[in-house]
Design brief:
Structural class: mainly alpha
Strand content: under 5%
Radius of gyration: 13 Å
Shape: elongated
CATH architecture: Orthogonal Bundle
Distance between the termini: 22 Å
Largest sheet: none
Order of helices and strands: HHH
Number of helices: 3
CATH topology: Helix Hairpins
Helix content: over 70%
Number of domains: 1
Number of strands: 0
CATH class: Mainly Alpha
Length: 62
């Protein structure tokens, strides 16, 4: 829940920057998974949820 409060306090521009960072991280996680170097595959699931949360807050603030 701490992330929800953090995202709620951010502006739309900050959320867009955070969204880009999360999407880049997700790309890297998928790349590592393909190369079988990803140590904890649950990170992909968590990152997808974070991206969905951020997109939800962006839509709420519009």
């Amino acid at each position: 829940m701490a992330k929800v409060k953090k995202y709620n306090e951010m502006s739309v521009e900050e959320l867009n920057v955070e969204l880009n960072n999360c999407q880049a991280s997700l790309f890297n996680f998928r790349f590592q998974k393909t190369l079988q170097q990803l140590e904890s595959p649950h990170q992909i699931k968590n990152m997808k949820k974070n991206i969905a949360r951020i997109k939800t807050f962006i839509n709420q603030k519009k």
